[in-house]
Amino acid sequence: MAETLAVRQISLRFGGVKALTDVSFAVEKGELFSIIGPNGAGKTSMINCISGRYKPSEGQILLDGRDITKATPNQRPKLGIGRTFQNLALFHHMSVLDNILVGRHHLMRNNFVTGSLYWLPGVRSEELAHRRRVEEIVDFLDLQAYRKAPAGTLSYGLRKRVELARAMALEPKLILLDEPMAGMNLEEKEDMARYIVDLNEEFGMTVVMIEHDMGVVMDISHRVMVLDFGRRIALGRPEAVLADPHVRKAYLGEDDDEPATLEPARAAS
């Protein structure tokens, strides 16, 4: 299987503090890959390195075999990387549709000058094509009833869904999800888990996800990587990672001789 993402010996320093130390892993095309670990383990720092928000102190990041380590955050969506944020980053005064359309910006061929000439056939045809694609995403995420509502008026769970829609609108090769279920109730988590599985399977998007709900992570992930104090301590299939004594000690707070008792919760099918 071809690798969509390859992370090679990434280290990240903030002054004298090392957030990441020699972390390496690869994500295969079409994989749903999760990163877990205790608070402060370096999970979001890793996502920020991949998305370009942070520049690694050492190491290399490749997307489809292309070195993107020095690419700017603005260049990475054009290269095929979309992301959501742990803290919502929507335009609250804009409608749901307009928020999602923002995600199409880098795909638009027309510039500001030609865009103002809406009556030109090519410009109008392109905008209609983008709007059709956005409507498909709205249908996929069951947002039809909120299409024209200002994003700031929606519930927290719905706003999380709109942010996922905007990331999907980029049509990325790789989508980075930073705690997509944080702050949700059980029903909202089940819905979000189903959407993530469907966008991975039906849309064919490669997913790298950070999530604290261990039940969901173990239930829907193909492989899981565990970070602790900025270092990789485990990588493998969910059941193998769950049984790893180092993971139980670092993440679940168990002693090495205690059995793993966590049972993965079932996501909605």
TrEMBL record:
Signal peptide stretch: none
CDD domains named among the record's database cross-references: ABC_Mj1267_LivG_branched
UniProt keyword list: ATP-binding, Nucleotide-binding, Transport
Source species of the chain: Methylobacterium aquaticum
InterPro entries linked to this entry: AAA+_ATPase, ABC_AA/LPS_Transport, ABC_transporter-like_ATP-bd, BCA_ABC_TP_C, P-loop_NTPase
Molecular-function GO term, any one: ATP binding
Tagged with keyword DNA damage: no
Pfam families: ABC_tran (PF00005), BCA_ABC_TP_C (PF12399)
GO cellular component terms, semicolon-separated: plasma membrane
Protein's recorded name: ABC transporter
Domain of life: Bacteria
Stretches assigned to the ABC transporter domain: 5-254
Gene: livG
